[in-house]
Amino acid sequence: MFNYLLRRLITVIPILLGISIISFAIMQAAPGNPAVMTMDPTISAEARARQLEALGLNDPIPVQYVKWLSGVVRGDFGLSYTQRRPVMEMILERLPNTLLLMLVATILAMLVSIPIGIYQARKRGSALDYGATVFSFAGLAMPNFWLAMMLIMLLSVQMGWFPVGGVSTLGADFSILDRLHHLILPALVLATSDMAALTRYTRSSMIDVLNQDYIRTARAKGLVERTVVYRHGLRNGLIPIVTIFALMLPTMIGGSVIVETIFSWPGIGRMFISAVFERDYPVIMAITMIAAVLTVIGNLIADICYALLDPRIEY
Amino acid sequence: MSDSMPNNSPLQSFDAQGQAQPLLRVENLKKHFPIYGGLLKRQIGSVKAVDDISFVVRPGETLGLVGESGCGKSSLGRTLIRLYEPSSGKIVFDGHDVSNLPESKLRGFRQQVQMVFQDPYSSLNPRKTIATILSEPFAAQGLYKGKERLERIDHLLQRVGLNPSLKNRYPHEFSGGQRQRIGIARALALNPKLIIADEPVSALDVSIQSQVLNILEDLQDEFKLTYLFIAHDLAVVKHISDRIGVMYLGKMMELAPKRELYSSPKHPYTQALLSAVPKAHPDEVRPDRILLKGDLPSPANPPAGCVFHTRCPKATEQCRQRTPVLQEVANDHWVACHLYGETTSEQ
Amino acid sequence: MTSKDSVIVDQPFVAQDQLGSHRPLWRITLTKFWQNRLAVIGLVLLSIIIISALLAPWIAPHDPNWQNLRMRLQPPSAEFWLGTDHLGRDIFSRLLFAGRVSLFVGFSAMLGAITIGTTLGAIAGYYGGRVDAFIMRTVDVVISFPSIFLLITLVAIFQPSIDKLILSFALLSWTGTARLVRGEFLTLKQREYVLAARTLGMSNMSIIFRQILPNAMGPIIVAATLAVGGFILAESALSFLGLGVQPPTASWGNMLTNAQSLNVFRNAWWYPTFPGLMIFITVLSFNFVGDGLRDALDPKVLER
Amino acid sequence: MLEPKQYRPLLSVNNLRTSFFRKGVELPVVDDVSFEVSSGETLAIVGESGSGKSVTSLSVMRLIPSPGGRIMGGEVLFDGMDLTMLPEKRMYDVRGNEIAMIFQDPMSSLNPVLTIGEQIAESLRLHKGLSKGKAMHKAIEILRTVGFARAAEIVNEYPHQLSGGMRQRVMIAMAMSCNPKLLIADEPTTALDVTVQAQILDLMQNLKKEFNSAIILITHDLGVVAELADKVIVMYAGKVVEQASVRELFNNPQHPYTRGLMQSVPKLDQDEDRLFSIGGNVPTPDNFPKGCRFCTRCPQVMPKCHQQQPELIKVGDNHLSRCFLHEAADV
Amino acid sequence: GGGADQANTTTNNQAESVQSSEASTGPAQGGNFVIATPGEPITFNELYYQDSASGDVISMIHAGLIYIDESFEVQPFIARELPTISDDGLQWTYHLREDVKFHDGEQLTAEDVVFTYSIFNHPDYSGPRVSDFELLDSVVALDPFTVQFTLTEPSAKFATQAGYGILPKHILGEVPVAELGDYRAYNVERPIGAGPFKFDSWTRGQNLVVRAFDDFFLGRPHLDSITTRFVGDQNAAILLLQTGQADYVIVPINEVETVRAIPNVQLESTLALRYDYIGWNMRNPLFQDRRVRQALTHAIDRQEIVETILNDNATVAHAPVSPLSWAYNDNVPQFNYDVERAKELLAEAGWVPGPDGILVKDGKRFSFEMLSNDGNVVRRDIGVIAQQYLRQVGIEVRPAQMEWGAFIERISPPNYNFDSVVLAWGLAIDPDPQAIWHSSEIEQGLNQISYSNPVVDALIDGNVSIMDQAERAERLGKVWYALAEDQPYTFLYYPQVFAGLSPRVNGFTQHARVDVFKPYQWWLAQ
Ligand SMILES: Nc1ncnc2c1ncn2[C@@H]1O[C@H](COP(=O)(O)OP(=O)(O)OP(=O)(O)O)[C@@H](O)[C@H]1O
Ligand SMILES: Nc1ncnc2c1ncn2[C@@H]1O[C@H](COP(=O)(O)OP(=O)(O)OP(=O)(O)O)[C@@H](O)[C@H]1O
Ligand SMILES: [Mg+2]
Ligand SMILES: [Mg+2]
Predict the structure, then answer these.
(1) How confident is the model at residue E26 (pLDDT cuts 50, 70, 90)?
(2) What are the φ and ψ backbone dihedral angles of B57, each rounded to 5 degrees?
(3) Looking at CA atoms only, how far is residue E255 from chain C in angstroms?
């Protein structure tokens, strides 16, 4: 297992390097110098040069990359062009919020979709199967910003059931309930498409599994249906679903960009959007890399779960 | 060509025995599949699917190959027809060494050696009509055009007992036996000299199996075909073959004319194999079964010495150490076993 | 019925009636597709949407870009079937023309992604070895790319335009197809009919294109269908951020950009509703059709 | 072996009819099948692929995949009770406990994610109420009886770590763990090599002696029948075409299909020049002929055969055959 | 003059009655005032900030010598009175109040003022205010509460530039000027000013809290605290206002009607010190002919745009000066919507309709790109609207949007890579046209469209030295006239700014230029 982990970790390095080089190259290829943008156009040439120097923008591009990379290895993503403070610090302020949102969304997606998917697989062709199928298709086709706006208008503004955004009630003392109250809508929107996808996958995976010979064996042993489905079916059915979880991570990080903006959620997604519009390259790079790392970690976790769940996998 | 051969090689005497030059001569053929693993996905070993096998196929005969699942029968067949690159050794077909011919020069060889496959479901492209499937051999070799090609196809279908009017149908519209016949027709299309049939009847029901076996026999008579017939059903092999080779774990254990093999099997493995066949009639009384202990070892890690020694009821110390060589112990009867005389090869 | 040939003495029963009725492949596929109710609904909706987009210049009641500032945000009426937008343009006409753009973006990006993915996947799967390793490592990198982030960065810093949008979509989303096609090729190249083709001396190109690809087409078509919907959705998400197709060209996504205003949301429900509905229905239909095709093109139907 | 014992069958299947439904069309996959098995007796069901052997056995277990398939009629009397009428709850006690089953493909019939021990102990805990530890103990014991020397280790291994023959032995151990009165073995050796098949047949022979269970052995290999069975029924396209004791059947096959079948297999101890062959193909359930189901392939077909379905006719002691030829002979 | 009278206030009836009943009992003490805004500040150091979000917070924390009131009059703040100016206009002397304390309790003295203003001219200063102080020669403390600024030339403009928040020398005195911009211990973490509110906490992405400063020299503010809540976008801000979770939001012009419809919410508005325009890049031969530019303006119905897109919340502009400014002069040529006149002018300039209806001259079609940035909904629409208007006179417009950064990049030196641009200028209090209109600003400055008129140059030169406002206004009037006639821009409109306030807010004064104005006068009804 250790060897396996090590091997997987080693393969991660070139992936991350590749991503960082491509992202860096794209930003270098962009027209103009973003750092200059944030400066007063009327300042003196010397002052300008001094600022460029301070930002390390006078070096040749490969040197800039290497400097950037060596910083990253030490956990230093450089200085934000606009905020003039360490990017790492900015990210650390926001990342927990994004992770919390993603975690709750993931749990939500799991809690809803897996039981429904299993039910559908068992009662194929039933009205509920049909209904859930249509619903999960709808979840996949719904633009998430659209859903978010509708939910806010309906549930927050019209009905007043939920806050329109933010992480907690202003000035109120910390309370889990209050936090959850703020979390529900954004997490729901973030989870929607994955919930839908996961339902579909669970359904087809379970249908697949329930048609397997060993399920027939289990039935022939006289096991009650519940045991057959959950003990013999689910464990096998979950194996491919684990991969979907890994795929969910990147879509969730991506979804956070929009969800956080709409729900005023102070996470890295919203920060990314402002950074893009301000062309704050160090921040863009850092968030891109963090998203990549999360993606890769997601894959890694999936592989490990796969290995843990499926005794046939050798590591 | 023959001067490169060692003196004690079975091939030489085969040649001498054979009335004519062998159609196919296989010398020390190996096919090893690499296994990758470890931190850097290096090759960490290999599956010795075919391990140092030599034999000849004489023109017009049927050479049967039996052995348990995974012993390398298919690998051997596919290597012979150059679907797999041989790891080492020589394949001499009709006097020409084809073992190292590059893909581009294989065209002529491909016309003369064809293959019939095991699975009637996956051996025909499900998205093509029978007519298309049967025209592919001609297309690939650039033979016949237009109407003539269609006539050939009709003829081929008739040869294997199918109504030519069915040629515009798709494989899924046919039963297993019919598909297998289509596969045979495809192999016949180029008028090959040698057909390698890899378990052509294993997937078929008993009552269908005999249809296909009969057709194969009829075609052999008609076209003077030579067969290399791979199967694991001993009765079927015996029915169709002239000589039979028994394989175990990538090696040839015994090779003899069929009657000889069935009446006096020499190798302990052959003996066990034959005794394992269920009796044909409830009243039949037979000496006790020779039950082999244990399981087939992995071809990635075959036992040292004689590969069979781990399961052989008659294994001795010497079997554990030295690899026996295939040698002639009776007229045209070859065995690789230390029980039959001294051998010289040291591992 | 009996074979004329003397060789086959014992084959008197190969009768056509043994085979059941002659069912060509397309018929089977169609029948299976037809049985999937949702897929049929999806196909009908899609046909309507695509045809009306194609015929937009002929069926649109108004010039989609004609602004009548004095007729801003008019509710649906006999004149403006689906109301007007914030510049007094006819929403119905704009939806038709926007459909052309959205569908064009979706289809072109899909073609790009599928072409790249299929080519690389086929090469990797068929030839294996180093080529395969190289392509698959590239896939690993691209697939780990947080594509939405890159997409936003790309279109934001290189002024968004339809062709750049399509290019970025294609370049970031071919990996799934590549993996899929590679997987298909890996299994299909072991199929005995492919081996048979090789023993017949067929060239690699013929084997790839004539033997394997047709059999891998099913999953590719399914992926392609789903991809179109995905790209339409992606364009709308970028439009939400102001980075999609740029006005005055209308796409369903950027029609929603202007509808984001609270004022519109409150007082002109028709404005955000219809473009949103179009996206939703179109993507939904693509997904329905894709799902139907998945079943209909399932090779298992043919294999036993 | 049969005579002195008081003849009371353990299982008696009467006029069983099981159908699958495709687009509302009924496919009578098992049609009017009757047979009996008693304790200590082995009944073999032979027939070609698709003839309904597995469906018959699954019907007995009431494990027909549903929706899609249904038992349409007939009765399955087991130990006096009609299994087709039993509430599902009671069936749970019958399955695995009183009737056990092993399947053709040992590769896929074991759950890949549970250890061998868990899978065997499961039945024991369920039906015999054993504690976890005790059940595991018992599992090891049973594994020994089916020939595992390393039984104590095997219980902690997963199916993929075992070879095909070993897995089939695990399946047998699992089936035998609760001392079932009836064992249904659906082609237990088809997927195995001859040498392994020999091991399994040997094992089954020993178990038969030891447990005195009734066995239904499904196979298409006449050799296996000759080796193990006491009685045989031959099925063709969902119907029983012939039924007899094993000796009677081999010595005196009556139905043209049975005869063809026997002649078409090559035999090790004979040199046949040319094999007999039944032409044509097995009809599929969606186009079974109207008359005798074998009429499309029968070498002795008569016009009547195309019109009418023949009945099972007694042609000797405990010997039934479904063919109009016998009628003609009687007349 | 005529500035303040343009500002008007609309309030919902109900809210008004609440307000008046409260007014009789006087301002209530206490409460937390919530501002909701999408923008998050960057620094609290007034010498370095550029964004309005930072500016808003700075207005709460810091105090300057003077401030500009809602009528754009300069008013003393820390200074006891307006400065005394020497006759040559070079010496400006301010007398400070003696009761001004920093938040840490230290007395604010002339030393702090000198310290603050010396930074601007320090060679290491890298902030954005260099150009404002080019004329400042020296600043000295005459006594602990008297400061004297000496200019190199007389400058009327200097009157408005003494409003920068005074920095505490006792805290920043030791910090090298080069590091001051990035001195986060003060700039971000613990800013100390002399303003009405003390910095309390900043949870990034969520909120920023300031608390009342008990020793504020005008007395403790009514509010206990002000919380600035950072939200995803303007929509979210308005929704917070509606749901009672915010007291003050800036309402974008396209959402005015939304807020107006919310019951009980007060909507304050005033004309912004700003005008929106379409700039014609005169590097492009298309726009070099004045008649063409006039025709372009004639072809666009600005009145309709104001009435429809802007819901009448703006006034058509004809010159680059705000009606709020004392320098405003409406005696300028106007090019109102007149398609026929536009066609005539174009024909005079030699443009004739081509085969596809688009004008051609010397084989060149009249077709160009109109650039705007995507952030601004209204300006983006203007490109699309202009396309339709100009199409009527045979001109093809290709509207294009760019993300702000790329947009600025393209229109700024050295690129100037655009045909025409839809943009707006937020004006300084002082109406000096130099930065935008002088030909010397083409190479480096803000004269992006490359406008060059020697007459205008001459009028601009030295205008800031005229200390007499009336005299200067007259001179500037000529500038406006020339610019209006030349139409380097199509001046579109002067928009209004709107503030949405919760019903409990009192004492709020809407200011055309700053969002947070006199926060110490704000109070909340209980
Ligand atoms: N392409 C391949 N790559 C790696 N290993 C292979 C490959 N083909 C076969 N092998 C291995 O080589 C050994 C011999 O396989 P082969 O298919 O030749 O056996 P076989 O005798 O034909 O068995 P069967 O009766 O099951 O067809 C097996 O262990 C198999 O796993
Ligand atoms: N789940 C199912 N749905 C529909 N038809 C089925 C199903 N299971 C079996 N059948 C049909 O029932 C018929 C009998 O099948 P069964 O499995 O009993 O045959 P068998 O005699 O066991 O064959 P084999 O030797 O291949 O196992 C076949 O035609 C098969 O197509
Ligand atoms: Mg094989
Ligand atoms: Mg079966």
Answers:
(1) confident
(2) -120, 125
(3) 6
